[in-house]
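TASK: fixed-backbone design
INPUT:
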């Protein structure tokens, strides 16, 4: 039976669907000797599918799910694309086979990352349709004004589009710094850092504590653990329920 290439690559544990699409666009995938294009389909039982010159293996029979506490300074990718010898999250997990991150954290951020070879679950967890909540502990410079926090909660123009509403709780506030808890469903590139900088309060520290039902807990920086069966079940259940369009939240915490 024919399936889209990115789905087959995800099932084989090569990469997430989004990363697979990039590999296809980069000309790294072939079907029966022909360079593949986005939208191509193939039957793994009849066609020869190659990724970087290697034949695509059949889907892996055992899926792996790992929670990792990414330290600051580590890339949240499977390889250093610029070949500068930088450490990646894949380097922190001493296991064979394909593992890739679900979502990203920028190099200077830290905290919870999910690593897996389950391409289908990875796709569902990162797809905007599902809008899974993520919780961040953020330290910014200065004493941010309540009006700015209210604006941030309701939405800010970023790249010509209004950001989705977020929930913000002020944990601590001093003249030189403010500590926040931010809960959001959206995840544009460096979104928290860019908004904070726009308000004149650059981020000092950013740590992700939660992805949907999955919690970082007391996992030490640079360490990882296998997910418990009930955690995997909770993630799967979360992907079966597309989120409703978020409504404007009520301000929480000190403001």
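OUTPUT:
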């Amino acid at each position: 039976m024919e399936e889209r290439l990115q789905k087959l690559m995800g099932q084989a544990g090569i990469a997430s669907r989004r990363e697979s699409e990039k590999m296809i666009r980069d000309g790294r995938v072939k079907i029966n000797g022909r360079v593949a294009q986005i939208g191509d389909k193939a039957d793994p039982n009849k066609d020869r599918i190659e990724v970087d010159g290697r034949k695509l293996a059949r889907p892996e029979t055992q899926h792996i799910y790992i929670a990792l506490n990414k330290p600051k300074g580590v890339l949240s990718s499977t390889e250093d694309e610029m070949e500068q010898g930088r450490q990646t999250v894949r380097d922190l997990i001493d296991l064979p086979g394909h593992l890739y991150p679900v979502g990203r954290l920028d190099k200077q951020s830290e905290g919870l990352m999910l690593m897996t070879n389950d391409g289908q679950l990875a796709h569902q967890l990162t797809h905007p349709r599902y809008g899974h909540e993520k919780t961040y502990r953020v330290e910014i410079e200065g004493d941010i004004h309540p009006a700015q926090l209210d604006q941030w909660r309701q939405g800010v123009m970023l790249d010509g589009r209004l950001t989705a509403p977020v929930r913000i709780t002020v944990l601590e506030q001093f003249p030189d710094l403010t500590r926040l808890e931010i809960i959001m469903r959206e995840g544009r590139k460096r979104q928290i850092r860019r908004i904070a900088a726009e308000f004149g309060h650059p981020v000092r520290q950013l740590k992700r504590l939660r992805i949907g039902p999955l919690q970082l807990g007391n996992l030490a920086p640079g360490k990882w653990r296998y997910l418990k069966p009930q955690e995997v079940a909770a993630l799967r259940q979360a992907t079966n329920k597309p989120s409703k369009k978020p409504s404007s939240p009520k301000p929480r915490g000190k403001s």
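COMMENT: Residues 209 and 215 are 6 Å apart (CA to CA).
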